Amino acid sequence: MNLDRYERKVLGVLAQYEGAVLVEDVTKKLQIDQATVMRACLSLQEKNLAKIEGKEIGYVKLSEEGRKYAQKGLPERRLLKALVQASGKPLPEIFSLASLDPDEQQIALAWIRRRGWAEFRKKDGETVLEITQKGKDELEGKTPEEELIESVREKALELDSVRLDLRDALQTLQRRGLLEILTKKKRWVELSGQGRELAKKGLEEIEEITELTREDLITGRWRKARLKKYDVTAPGPAIYPAKIHPQRRVIEELREILLEMGFTEIKSRIVETEFWNFDALFQAQDHPAREIHDSLSVKKPKEGKLPSNRLLRRVAQAHEKGVVGSTGWGYKFNPAISKRLVLCSQTTAATVRFLASKPEPPVKVFCIDRVYRHEHIDYKHLAEFYQCEGIVMDKGLTLRDMLGYLKLIVNKLGLEKIRFRPGYFPYTEPSVEAEVYFPEKNEWIEVLGAGMFRPELLRPLGIKYPVLAWGIGFSRLAMIKLGISDIRDLYSCDLEWIRQQR
Amino acid sequence: MPTVNTTYEEISRLLKKEIPKPELVERLALLGIESEESEEGLKLEVPHNRPDLLSVEGIVRALKGVLGIKTGLPQYPLRKPKIEVVVDPSTSTVRPHIACGVIRDVKLDEETVASLMQVQEKLHATYCRKRKKASIGVYDLDTLQPPITYTTVDPEGIKFVPLEYTQALTPAEILRQHPKGVEYAHLLEGLSRYPVLIDSKGTVLSLPPIVNSEDTKVSANTKALFIDVTGLDRRVVESALKVLMTSLAERGFVLEGVRIKQRKKTRVTPQLKPVRKALAVKNTNQMLGLTLNARQIAQLAKKMRYGIARVTDTHVDLLVPPYRVDILHEVDLIEDIAIAYGYDKLEPTIPPVCTIGSAAEIEKMSTKIRLTMIGLGFTELMTYSLISTKKAQLFNKEVVEIANPVSEEYSAVRNSLIPSLLDAVFKNQQYPTPQKLFEIGDIVVFDEADETKTRTVRCVAGAIVGKSATFTNVRSVAEAVLRELGIPFQTVAANPEGFIEGRCVSFIHEQEVVGKAGEIHPEMLELYRIENPVAVFELVLGTI
Question: B residues 135-174 near A, CB within 8 Å?
């Protein structure tokens, strides 16, 4: 027979008693928590070493009102005492002396008369309450009710232990709502014959260890003990790890792919001048994307600063009259518009800032950042969302090379099929849109846009080499990867949802 | 993207050939036109830069080329002008540009009228920028008595019956009462005189860019159309007329010029002569990665409806159709060659561009701190950086404000991660505590020295919610992060908005405050309706 530490302790205590022992008593004796003791008792019972018996026990306890009277005395007792002191005085005065509130007054009057301690008499045409002889006799005594209240005042009393002569009082008080009777389960545990035998034989048998302790290890006790076998198939409690946000995971996956492909990461800023956000991208100053219904303009701070005169002039010229054989947009460029501040509406602003630093080829850079639009937020629109875009600059790059990069990125994302369509972006020509086949959706979905930067964009920045530029529809891709249909979930902060995402 | 509504049947009729539907859809896609089928028919999405594709006729014209039904330059013979438009100098400060044309032998069946209305509406909405840059009027020529005068009038100076009305109104009344007047009144705002077109009998044709007159309305019996385009942008005015007239010519109608007398000069509109542009064989091949010769390029160009003026070994001189108003540069021609070649036939290639990639320093640091926070048992959140100005100012009055917010809720750019972190705490109130949350994100602060007068700053912030939300716990986390970053710091007692006094510390590194940690004040928790104690920290990781 193998017993663990607690089972042995409980067995030891039980052996000191003849009969059944209250579980609480064992707990007190061992100074360990009741749940552990109970578990040990159950375990002993399972091994036929002990027997547990339970019984519903009734308890008598004062109600709230009862507790009040236990302190102040019963209303009828207080009235009786006041009557002695203020015999013959008007009732209200007596009540006040007995400090009885209106509710108590009624109770006091009813009970003092029922007990025959006082009665109403006519005296000089007025009704007065007069103490009786019985009342005088009772003045120093205690009624059974009062005795009972006294005895349960400190702590609840077991129903069975109420004195026989107080049983009627118990009923009365219960009716008066001053006492309550409640039941509680009590457990006794008693050693079986086998248990007593084992205890007598001594507990030389091998100890069983539940939780391995440092003590067990350094004393070498574990050598003599046996490590208890658990029911390892029983369900365990669920715990959840702290997590990286699901949208972040998609961002990190893309970053990793692009870094592997030799792209260098650049960052975009949140507030940008219209010069960098639009002008330098050859987007005409009256382009619809620049209207208040499309981009978010900044009110405070009021305006930004212009770039160098030289750059501003060259960009203005590209817009007005064109550069390198272009006709331009043919309107009057306004630097006051260039100074205006907007929330960055395309990460291309960061790319163009980078190109303005005149990097030498070969160059590959990418940017994953948030951009901002004038959109009402609903299940398919966000006012701020991530864009992922990049460029490749080198001598002799072609449109076919652009398609090659798009294909490579898509393949790295674990997708096989891609097809290309002509596209339109204001600052690339030729432009291309790539549709990717998603087997889980059985659908071709447009997730990439790309093209070669227009000469009107490159020349003012002083770039003489072809530049391939591409962008990934990040939100669309992330939604497919995460299996969500409401775009707002990309920013969900619901802990339960984050917990469920894998 | 702008859309054009049509039907498969209409396209087949105009093509004079039936192409199986799936093939047609694929052909359109390879022209950059996406189609979506619905109960009403086909909805075609066309590129922003191609107003000539805003009509079914224009789309069919392009299709004919790539299908080989009709290639090369479309011919638009223009009859000598018979009608004259006299331009009053007063228009020059109001709506200075005008171009007109006449179309004869028209047969306006239901389909043609619908198509005409659609192209006019789509041009207005997109290319003409909601009538701001240009607006188009189409009239029954036979109701008019030429010559026609383009002039200005006093807002109360004339009366005519606007379209869909029975009662004559002054221009000012039209702007107040007529639905189109109300919609476009802003385009005439602040002007003391309004532009009008009037014929020699005094019949008003229209009040551009608002509304035409009922008297000159086009009907099913109309035999000839008079068209005007007026506007603020000369290029758009002329181009819109060309696009509209050449599109109608595709239905077999006859085009006729109009003589415009302006400042003693006379010119004829529309100008439908193709523009000649040279395309270098070398540039084409270099850009596309192909090895086409001049003859092949010329063949492809014809499929895109270009005319060929001359072919040499090195160059192809193209005649650009008058409706192709999107051609700015040789690259635009090269893209058309690629489209004619077929994007589906372009074989992807990977060039040997050898570069070594590297992550941005701020992202490397963010990744490190993200893992640190996860290690400390904090779950990552991502919240919007657009927040309510009011909420941002609870903690810090200095905040970047948006001029045209969609709502107050998103009217500022956050200057701290803490307000949105507290929002997330409120939203997660239903779940058991303790909770540990963090975010790594960007905020914006003012910086007079920067080009944008602001700086984008990367921060990390964390919140502990529930019983363990104590100052000691949160400052330990903040200090662990600083330690991981290798930033030596000093601590100073701080008393910022929103925190309990005496339970907030600032971290100082090289005389600069790099962050704070503390317990959120119950008053603030009440504002956020948060029922658990919350302790937060925020640290600056660097400037973007």
Answer: none
